[in-house]
Amino acid sequence: MQQTVVSLFLSLLTFAVFAQNKQANNWYFGHHAGITFNTPDGSPQAVFDGQINQWEGCASISDKEGNLLFYTDGLTVWNAAHDTMPNGQNLNGHPSATMSAIIVPAPGNDSIFLPHHLLLTPSVYAIQLLICTLIMV
């Protein structure tokens, strides 16, 4: 019960943080698909310019104005121009992990983001957390 309350609190806190800005306005997933909420009325609009080509485990982040910064499938990181970022390949995320990647803004710094990639090691069935710091200039 306590875990459920804590999980609910953290989910609502995350929603409240992102509701104050537009860092979650662009979603990329699936097979070159995505959704943007950068419309005049905030309604979702389909976009088809993404490079991701997998069903699950994708993450994206935008700046506070809703401009796409980068996105990842846990294996590769692409920038807003949909080009592979420097050191953004072979990140060892697993394409079959439901949450292969998550991007967390660094506390107190609008230009540092921490993409976390989960690696499933088949030989031991363990999950390893890999942290990569990307500095947005």
SSE arrangement:
Blueprint: H1 2-19, E1 26-31, E2 33-36, E3 45-47, E4 53-54, E5 59-62, E6 68-72, E7 77-79, E8 101-105, E9 112-121, E10 126-131, E11 134-135
Short description, anyone?
This protein has 137 residues and is mainly β. Helices cover 13% and strands 36% of the residues. The chain is globular, with a radius of gyration of 15 Å.
What would you note in describing this structure?
The chain is mainly beta. 13% of the residues lie in helices and 36% in strands. It is built from one helix and eleven strands; from the N terminus they run H-E-E-E-E-E-E-E-E-E-E-E. It has a four-stranded antiparallel beta sheet, with no helix packed on it. A hairpin with a 4-residue loop joins strand 6 (68-72) and strand 7 (77-79). The chain is globular. The protein starts with a helix and ends with a strand.
Quote the beta fraction.
Answer: 35-45%
Portion in helices: 10-25%
Mean of all residue-level pLDDT scores: 75
Annotation, overall tally of beta strands: 11
Order of helices and strands: HEEEEEEEEEEE
Sheet/helix structural class: mainly beta
Strands across the major sheet, in which order?
3-2-1-4
